[in-house]
Amino acid sequence: MKLSDKNLETEVSEVFSSLQGEGPYLGVKQIFVRFGRCNMRCGYCDEIEKMKEESFSVYPLEKLIGEVDRLEAEKGPHHSVSLTGGEPLFYACFLGNFLPRLKEKGLSAYLETNGTLPRELAQVIKWCDVIAMDMKPASSAGDRAFLKEHEAFLKVAIQKELFVKVVITPDTLAREIGECVDLVAAVNPKIPFIFQPLSEPFGINGRSLALIEKELFAIASQKLLDVRVIPQMHKIWGVR
Ligand code: SF4
Description:
With about 240 residues, this protein is α/β, with parallel strands linked by helices. The chain has helices spanning about 60-75, 90-105, 120-125, 140, 145-155, 175-185, 205-225, 235, and strands at about 10-20, 30-35, 55-60, 80-85, 110-115, 130-135, 160-170, 195, 200, 205, 225-230. Helix 2 (about 90-105) packs parallel to helix 3 (about 120-125) and helix 5 (about 145-155) packs parallel to helix 6. Iron/sulfur cluster binds next to loops.
């Protein structure tokens, strides 16, 4: 599938109204725009199926604006529009047209991102209200860590409200968390740093949670002022 105009069309797998299930905005009502592709392939990703080309559709700008309007009218008011994925910044050219339209409507933009595309963030940050940045240690990202990308990303993202989230799997290493913490602390030790234990179909992975409690929380708390553990709640609530 090819986009005929990267500025005025995008690839979307779903647009829906639901509750934010992760991080410090847990429980707020949002319109979710789930973008199609991602530049990464994390081992724990629960969106891999939706990232297959046959699972998403080409949305012209006006069609997507129309869907947002419809959801806001039928199910609003919403706290914000969550740009999620996949990786929304993979579609930065499109966001440069979409986000100003959200602003005209008085809607806030909540960007959920893997934190590896700093140049793309710089293109659109002026229209973002909250940046929910994941950090990806090599043990979850696959072949390598993305420390250089994360460092550059943090330096751009700090202009806006920002928090960082790291999904902890049983394979996460203390050294990897130390590296993430050092990057965040160098930018601002007040940036909220969220440990998200790996979710399983019927709850939380106990080994991930134990790792946070025994080792990782203390490492982060040595250098950061706002460290929290917030599990992913979608599966527990039984919502998307
Ligand atoms: S960055 Fe997010 S959407 Fe992309 S593969 Fe990783 S978990 Fe999935």
